[in-house]
């Protein structure tokens, strides 16, 4: 397909400076057949006017009350005009001005690509890998991030299958509509994993392309000590992170794996996170731990998905 049109979709909330930096990267792309859509999830400040003055043909949509990430995506992506959608979080920058062009050449070489993800690096350490293709253990529910926090040794470029593509990814609008959009019950964390599972169920590949690099403005993550990741976010994010894993497990796992999880690992994770919060005096997280445990268990046993923060 010659010169396909691309809709770049950026969700944002209270990150004005980061958003401006990312938009400048997008508008500096060599590929110009794009529309840019910014979805603001009820930021404390409305900066629509200043954005529209600087960025030509920008489409700005603002939620008047918080919808969170997934409802915001579903609410506004349907207004995108074009077939190729590029979702990217607002706390990234793009150093390569040919990124969109490279992605399109890959997508249109293989009609079976459902999701094409970008590799993430740290903005402050741009040679250090944050997100490499990952895998998911369907018994322990542990996500393994290969090569995280490792320096990129200029490995041979490739496209590789991955469990999911967080942070920045391309998808055809027709594919997203075929899998019934993003699952709104998930709200935020694990949404990309659920989308990837639905895409694979429709016989598409979920790939990460090592040529596509984005640079994420986050502190260095130690995935071997996940409680630290909790501390960099909030009790609310911790709640959704774990509660949504219960949703994912029940929806996609085989019966034996579900039994192993609920009889063994479910209890281990409750005890582990509770001890870590006490040990590190992060008492605000204890309530989130109790409610993700309770709400996750209620959903697992009775198929009722509660939401403590609504």
What does this 3D model show about the protein?
- The chain is α/β, with parallel strands linked by helices.
- It has 2 domains: 6-216, Spore Coat Polysaccharide Biosynthesis Protein SpsA, Chain A (Alpha-Beta Complex); 226-302.
- Helices cover 40% and strands 21% of the residues.
- It has 10 helices and 12 strands.
- The protein has helices at 16-27, 48-54, 68-77, 99-107, 173-178, 191-201, 226-232, 235-252, 255-279, 284-302, and strands at 6-12, 34-40, 58-62, 84-88, 92-93, 113-122, 129-131, 134-136, 143-145, 159-161, 168-172, 205-216.
- The strands form 2 sheets. Strands 1, 2, 3, 4, 5, 6, 7, 10, 11 and 12 form a 10-stranded mixed beta sheet that branches.
- A hairpin with a 6-residue loop joins strand 6 (113-122) and strand 7.
- Helix 8 packs parallel to helix 10 (284-302) and helix 9 (255-279) runs antiparallel to helix 10 (284-302).
- The radius of gyration is 19 Å and the shape is globular.
- The termini are far apart.
Largest sheet: 10 strands, mixed
Number of strand segments: 12
Question: Superfamily at the CATH H level of the largest domain?
Answer: Spore Coat Polysaccharide Biosynthesis Protein SpsA, Chain A
Query: Terminal Cα separation, in Å?
Result: 44 Å
H/E element string?
A: EHEHEHEEHEEEEEEHHEHHHH
Number of domains: 2
Low-confidence stretches: none
Radius of gyration: 19 Å
What would CATH call the class of the largest domain?
Alpha Beta
What is CATH's topology name of the largest domain? Spore Coat Polysaccharide Biosynthesis Protein SpsA, Chain A
The whole-number mean of residue pLDDT values reads 84
Helix content: 40-55%
